[in-house]
């Protein structure tokens, strides 16, 4: 059974640089993603495979350990998989440039052959990938998240990036919507302005509002901001907690809808509140202890 984890940040660590690997081993990121693809030049792929295996073995700190392999069809993916599937503590494999169900199924087959319990993140990086979101999401039960890669998408479509990010709205919204439709996590694009925390904060808030559950990270300085911004703010959590408590009290009285602060609360709102609380609990926060005394009547 694949365990459920919060995945607010997916932190890419190039496996061609031992120094960066060592620094990342104690990162607070929810997911450390060791990179064999774009972060590694073609002439360093063999070395990177040996480094990634030792990196996974040596990482006893991270909540989730993953590897971004080279894309299916690159001619490098099977050798990547033959190495990384030897790591007993590997949790997830990121499949880049996913465009069809087959791209995922090739990787899933190798995981099955190795008799491993490993999740898959499907990275959507092209117009065709966006058009095939449904079949990618449904391609295998191991698919745990859909991820949007903006730079490759722009390269594929000829779109020019602007500070407004308007040109990416359709593709981002499509990925987030498909992820929720098929009960997957939704991972937003990298913030390339890695030294500008204001831009990063804006992107995080925007992504969360669009329904993304996490974001890709390329620099250690981005991790804390991303982890915080992809948790609901305290006022939202407090309201969700009060809604759930109110629902439980009124359920005992045989009531369906009830009033809270002058607003009607029915089951869709209660379901939303339960989702908010579940997300916060996965982050290790004791909501009851945090908001005791904020019950519906207080």
UniProtKB/TrEMBL annotation:
Binding-site list for Mg(2+): 125, 152
GO molecular function, one term: lyase activity
Co-factor requirement: Mg(2+)
Annotated positions binding substrate: 68, 125
GO BP term (any one): oxaloacetate metabolic process
Keywords: Lyase, Magnesium, Metal-binding
Superkingdom of the source species: Eukaryota
Domain HpcH/HpaI aldolase/citrate lyase as annotated: residue spans: 8-220
Annotated Pfam families: HpcH_HpaI (PF03328)
Protein name from the UniProt record: Citrate lyase subunit beta
Organism: Linderina pennispora
């Amino acid at each position: 059974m694949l365990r459920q984890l919060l995945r607010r940040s997916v932190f890419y660590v190039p496996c061609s640089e031992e120094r960066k690997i060592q620094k990342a081993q104690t990162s607070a990121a929810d997911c450390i993603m060791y990179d064999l693809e774009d972060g590694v030049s073609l002439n360093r792929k063999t070395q990177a495979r040996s480094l990634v295996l030792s990196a996974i073995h040596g990482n006893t700190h991270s909540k989730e350990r993953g590897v971004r392999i080279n894309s299916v069809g690159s001619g490098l993916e099977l050798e990547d998989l033959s190495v990384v599937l030897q790591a007993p503590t590997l949790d997830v494999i990121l499949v880049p440039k996913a465009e069809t169900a087959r791209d995922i199924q090739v990787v899933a087959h190798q995981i099955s052959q190795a008799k491993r319990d490993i999740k898959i993140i499907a990275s959507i990086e092209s117009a065709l990938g966006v058009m095939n979101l449904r079949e990618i999401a449904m391609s295998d039960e191991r698919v745990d998240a859909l991820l949007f890669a903006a730079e490759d998408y722009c390269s594929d479509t000829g779109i020019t990036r602007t500070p407004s990010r308007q040109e990416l709205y359709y593709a981002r919204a499509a990925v987030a919507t498909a992820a929720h439709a098929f009960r997957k996590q939704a991972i937003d694009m990298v913030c390339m302005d890695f030294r500008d925390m204001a831009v990063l904060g804006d992107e995080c808030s925007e992504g969360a509002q669009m329904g993304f559950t996490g974001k890709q990270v390329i620099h250690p300085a981005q991790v804390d901001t991303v982890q915080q911004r992809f948790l609901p703010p305290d006022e939202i959590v407090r309201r969700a907690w009060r809604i759930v408590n109110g629902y439980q009290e009124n359920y005992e009285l045989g009531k369906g809808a009830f009033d809270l602060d002058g607003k009607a609360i029915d089951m869709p709102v209660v379901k939303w509140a339960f989702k908010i609380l579940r997300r916060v609990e996965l982050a290790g926060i004791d909501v009851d202890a945090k908001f005791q005394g904020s019950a519906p009547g207080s």
